[in-house]
Amino acid sequence: MHCEPIGHIRSPYTDKFGIPRQPGLVTAAEARLELRPEFAREDAFKALDGFSHVWILFVFHQDCLGAGWNPTVRPPRLGGRESVGVFASRAPYRPNPIGLSAVEHLGLIRDARGLALRLRGVDMLDGTPVLDIKPYVPYADSLPQARGGFAVAPDTTEHVIHFSPTAGANLERFDPDGRRALRELIIQVLAQDPRPGYMDRYPDRRAFGLRLMEFDIHWRLEAGRVEVTGICSTL
C-alpha cells in the first residue's frame, strides 16, 4: 500500500506548541489546503459546496514519520500522568501516523499559488500532507449519544486575556485592519491553555511563548490573568 498526498495545509500554526488539541476549538484559525497540480481540478469538488464541513485525512509528518510507536501513550488531557492505549487516543505517534479532523470549509479559491480549499477551525501544522477529503454528513457523522471517555469537554481556561500596551501597538502595526484576525487568533489559542498538562509541576513559571503565523507571541500568567506582553515578527 502506498499513498501520495493530494496537497498540503497552509495554516497559522508554524510550530506544534499552540495547536489546539481538537479541531473547531479555534474558529479564528483559517487555513488553505493547497492541491498538487495533478489534483487541482474544480470538477473534483463538484457538489461539495452543499456541505458545510469536511473530513480531512492527513499525516502527522513532523517528527512522527519513521519514529515508531508505543502501545500506550500519556494524553495531555490527563496531564501526562496516566497512560491509555494508543488506539484509545488521538496521539500522533501511531503505527501509521494518520490524523482525522472535521473542519468547516469555505469554498475553493484559485490564485497564483494554484487551486486551494479554504478551511476554518483547523488543528493542523503548517505543511501537513493531506491524503484525502470527504464530506461531513451530519445524519451519520454526528452522534450526540456517544460517550467521550476521558475526553468529555474541551480544556478552556477561565483566565482573562489582556494585551499590554506594547502588544496592542504591535497588533496595530502587524494587522491594522484586522483582516488577518490576529487578535482573535491569539485570544482563542490562549483560551485553550496551550501549556503542557504537566505544567502544574512548575508553579513558579509564569512566562511563556509560542509561534503563530510569522509571529512570536509572548505572554505571562499572573493570578488568573493572561497578559500578552509582546508580538514580534520573525520575518
From TrEMBL:
Q: Which InterPro entries match?
A: TrmO-like_N, TrmO_C, UPF0066_cons_site, YaeB-like, YaeB-like_sf, YaeB_N_sf
> Which Pfam families does the record cross-reference, listed alphabetically?
TrmO_C, TrmO_N
Sections of the chain in a coiled coil: none
Entry superkingdom: Bacteria
- Give the PROSITE patterns listed for this entry: TSAA_1, TSAA_2
Provide the GO biological process annotations: methylation
Swiss-Prot/TrEMBL keywords: Methyltransferase, S-adenosyl-L-methionine, Transferase
Recorded GO molecular functions are:
methyltransferase activity
Q: Where is the TsaA-like domain?
A: 3-145
- Matching SUPFAM superfamilies, A to Z? YaeB-like
Matching entries from PANTHER family are given as: TRNA (ADENINE(37)-N6)-METHYLTRANSFERASE
Q: Give the similarity note.
A: Belongs to the tRNA methyltransferase O family.
Name listed for the protein in its UniProt record: tRNA (N6-threonylcarbamoyladenosine(37)-N6)-methyltransferase TrmO
According to its UniProt entry, this protein's organism is Allochromatium palmeri
Q: Which gene encodes it?
A: tsaA
